[in-house]
Amino acid sequence: MRTYRELLRTPEFTPLFLAVSAQVAAMTVSGLALGVLVYAATGSPLLAALSMFGSSLAQVIGAAVLLSAADRLPPRAAMTGVALAFCLGTAVLAVPGLPLPGVFAIILGLGLVGSVGGGVRYGLLNEILPADGYLLGRSLVNMSVGIMQVCGFAAGGVLVSALSPRGTLLAGAALYLVAAGAARFGLSARAPRASGRPSAAATWRSNARLWSSAPRRRVYLALWVPNGLIVGCESLFVPFAPEQAGTLFACAASGMLAGDVLVGRFVPARWQARLGTALLLLLAAPYLVFAVDPPVPLAVAAVTVASIGYAASLVLQRRLMDLTPAEMSGHALGLHSSGMITMQGVAAALAGTLAQHTSPGTAIAVMAGASVTVTLALARGLLPRPGLDTTPGHPMARSSTDGSTKS
């Protein structure tokens, strides 16, 4: 599968694509509104960063106790329920006079619910698409994420000015409702991918199994840490340039979109597996310019170029699937998603703390330098080993032996 036309003809891909797109648009619009609302009320870069990315911190709890649900719940019902929970929580955040502790309690609660969502969505994507279509499918989903973020941050900036941050939060709640409708009425009912009831014990057993493999550990660390540190940089866009934060976020999303198109559609498959380290370095290096507090045009250029490097996640997710048994695909992708989002929340908190004691530009440069360092430390272990990195029972392994693929 090499064309988007083939991809969009795959049954159920389009409604899944629409549901994910609507949810990303909702998260983008409401996140910007919440960051502006909290920063205006407190003047704190740390609290502004945590209001936008603090739900990520709850992902570590979800990854520890809830993640087995990603393969043990019916995908349609789970996706619909997650979107409805976010719709309700976002609407409550728009209530005037809600105290700051209440705001952060809701944010953390939504993060806990969302910890299951990534595994459900991307496990279903892996189930819907044949093995040779996963990278292209995830590329198109990531392109949608980029487009929705560009449009969401642009529209969010307009809505914040026209409606107020609280009005923009209600618009975000409406978009979550659209995502729930797309999932409920566009997807077919499917049985869970794994048997048994979701439980903390099942989650721990599967996490331990996934983490027991050294190649998978390195891939997980590469997916989580360099990416998370750069999202920590992005969490400081509001205090770095309050009037231009929407532009910086939109340009970051544009760069991510460009990278996903190039890697997912045009880079030959034989090259993709070797691009992970280079893309991770590209993701971080341009942010080092923030050490000199660059003017906004230079900052915009650096952010746009750097964000092309987010395409590293496509390469690394494909390798993760090659290393993972098919019946654990949802859990494995959920662990990737939860770990990555948790790291993003930790990095946002760390970046906000650094900015409190130095400056936003200095904190951004320090986070970028840390990302480069981690990438270089992991680089050797990320190179693929032909014939050794495909797990028996994975669709790639089946297609190499009997010609079949999982649809």
From TrEMBL:
Tell me the segments the record calls region Disordered. 385-407
Q: Which GO terms describe its cellular component?
A: plasma membrane
The entry's localization annotation reads: Cell membrane
Q: Where is the composition biased (Polar residues)?
A: 398-407
Q: Which SUPFAM superfamilies match?
A: MFS general substrate transporter
- According to the record, the segments passing through the membrane are 16-40, 46-70, 77-97, 103-124, 145-163, 169-187, 219-238, 244-263, 275-292, 298-316, 337-355, 361-379
* Superkingdom of source: Bacteria
The membrane-topology field of this record reads: Multi-pass membrane protein
| Keyword terms of this UniProt record | Cell membrane, Membrane, Transmembrane, Transmembrane helix
Output this protein's name: Predicted arabinose efflux permease, MFS family
